[in-house]
């Protein structure tokens, strides 16, 4: 059994305040015996104003949230997935990275992953996102090794591109992480179904820490996220649902369930090539 600590946040556009809340919940998870703790997408700052982000975000090397959470992981001896941080980069267009970090109990960065699929979507007339204007998409899928299993890294909108999850599972992933800031509207319609589908298709545990509630009202009145941090078993059962309040969920997962689910339905081994007659 591995004890998972899943953190739901209502991050503001103030990275210092967000760090305070996040660190407190990470410590609470460690105190409760969690071995692996996960935070949502853009844990450090939810903001769609590029001007504001330019003021408050740092490069990876100087980012105070990353440094502080690495230290917390080390002091508490836990594995920590920082679901993602908005970070400055040397992108020629000045775009940020939406980057996840897997931190070891020694406080080392064991893996980093830049979100591949950009959320360029009109959710409604008043709620439009052009993530690729502000963020530079990644080009590399990542599977990272831990003592409790291999972790396939994804972020938020990646959830809608099952090719990625299949590639991660085929590369050995037993746990898929899907930190998110799903919109309230699309979350209501799709969040549980998409996460359960990815778990069922791959025979992986899916761990999905989420942002929740209203964010950064000054610059972005409509920004509202869905919450419902979830843990899904490899058979597709919802083992935990964090609801809409920020806080901590604790769930024990049994990695043997991965092999059991894949034995019952070995679809991961049954891919076939085909042509499309159109
Ligand atoms: O903008 C930031 O600061 C961080 N990025 C996000 O919150 C991103 C892009 S706006 N949100 C999503 O990917 C939501 C996906 C979603 O809701 C869906 O697929 O339905």
From TrEMBL:
The keyword Hydrolase applies. The keyword Hydrolase applies. One of its GO terms (molecular function) is hydrolase activity, acting on carbon-nitrogen (but not peptide) bonds, in linear amides. Keywords: Hydrolase. It comes from the Bacteria. Residues 2-255 form the CN hydrolase domain. InterPro entries: C-N_Hydrolase, C-N_Hydrolase_sf, Nit1/2_C-N_Hydrolase, UPF0012_CS. Belongs to the carbon-nitrogen hydrolase superfamily. NIT1/NIT2 family. This is Predicted amidohydrolase. It comes from Celeribacter neptunius.
